[in-house]
Amino acid sequence: xxxxxxxxxxxxxxxxxxxxxxxxxxxxxxxxxxxxxxxxxxxxxxxxxxxxxxxxxxxxxxxxxxxxxxxxxxxxxxxxxxxxxxxxxxxxxxxxxxxxxx
Length: 102
Fold this sequence. Notes:
The protein is mostly helical. Helices cover 66% and strands 0% of the residues. It contains 6 helices and no strands. Helix 2 (13-25) runs antiparallel to helix 5. The two termini are 34 Å apart.
């Protein structure tokens, strides 16, 4: 650890628990979408899957891609509370911030 990152306090325990909860909340819908794309019956008739979701077809790529993007967005808070990743120090962010005083 460098001296700059050592001065930044770690995220509180409640923030870490909340970040884990956010990541876990997106899992059921992602699994449901992947099951739908794989052909498992999830409550839609074959006609609805063909007409509305284009499954089989390009709808599979859309549904799986949507699941991947949703999971990545849900994992982002874990990155924010991580001790290992500090992209910019607060002073750097302050220097980069656009203010009306300029």
